[in-house]
């Protein structure tokens, strides 16, 4: 009887140990895949060519790491009001890349009547903007006043207020040229 109980305990311990090791092994593989370097990918075509998954939507989208690239359809050129722009990251003059901790949490929507709506990982904001040629200014931005621990809202707001110019790329990106770096939205 004691041998049977001992044998069951040893078997249960071995199964638990193998299960735990398998879990950590699979978790480490998943982490390595998530950390793969996608810094060289800058548009949909490069993402697709690198073998990342492509969503069959219109327009198609390709996901590489935490970045999503949208296919540019010939004959369609993006403009400020053509979509809701998601903040992908900001490259500072010091070389530091600041990315949102939550993909898709920061968005900017421009309307034809000079209004801008912003959403962050904490609050909603709104106000006005003017865009002429390649110059852009944000004005009278107001915000809800919720407190959220570890929010990146302050950085995001500062980046927008430091933006004197912008450009739209053929790859469907909105590039905000700041006084101290470059902000990328898609």
3D shape: extended
CATH topology of the largest domain: Lipocalin
Distance between the termini: 67 Å
Mean pLDDT across all residues, rounded?
A: 81
Total discrete domains: 3
Please tell me how large the radius of gyration is: 23 Å
CATH architecture heading of the largest domain: Beta Barrel
Poorly predicted spans: 29-35
> Biggest sheet, open or closed, and with what strands and sense?
9 strands, antiparallel
How many DSSP-defined strands?
12
Could you estimate the helical fraction of the residues in percent? 25-40%
Structural class: alpha+beta
Order of helices and strands: HHEEEEEEEEEHEEE
Number of helices: 3
Broad CATH class of the largest domain: Mainly Beta
Beta-strand level of the residues, as a percent range? 25-35%
Give a structural overview.
The protein has 186 residues and is an alpha+beta fold. It folds into 3 domains: 35 residues; 41 residues, no CATH class; 108 residues, Lipocalin, CATH 2.40.128.270. It has 3 helices and 12 strands; from the N terminus they run ααβββββββββαβββ. The strands form 2 sheets. Strands 4, 5, 6, 7, 8, 9, 10, 11 and 12 form a 9-stranded antiparallel beta sheet that branches. Strands 1-2-3 form a 3-stranded antiparallel beta sheet. The chain is extended. The chain starts with a helix and ends with a strand.
């Amino acid at each position: 009887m004691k041998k049977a109980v001992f044998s069951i305990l040893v078997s249960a311990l071995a199964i638990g140990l193998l299960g735990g090791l398998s879990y950590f092994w699979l978790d480490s593989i998943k982490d390595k895949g998530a950390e793969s370097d996608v810094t060289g990918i800058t548009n949909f075509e490069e993402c697709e060519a690198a073998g990342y998954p492509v969503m069959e939507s219109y327009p198609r989208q390709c996901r590489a790491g935490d970045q999503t690239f949208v296919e540019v359809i010939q004959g369609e050129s993006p403009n400020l009001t053509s979509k809701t722009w998601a903040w992908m990251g900001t490259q500072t003059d010091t070389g530091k890349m600041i990315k949102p901790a939550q993909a898709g949490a920061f968005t900017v929507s421009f309307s034809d009547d000079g209004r801008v709506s912003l959403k962050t990982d904490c609050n909603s904001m709104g106000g006005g903007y003017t865009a002429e040629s390649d110059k852009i200014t944000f004005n009278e931005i107001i915000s809800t006043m919720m407190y959220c621990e570890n929010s990146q809202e302050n950085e995001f707001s500062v980046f927008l207020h430091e933006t004197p110019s912008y450009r739209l790329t053929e790859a469907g990106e909105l590039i905000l040229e700041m006084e101290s770096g470059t902000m990328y939205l898609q």
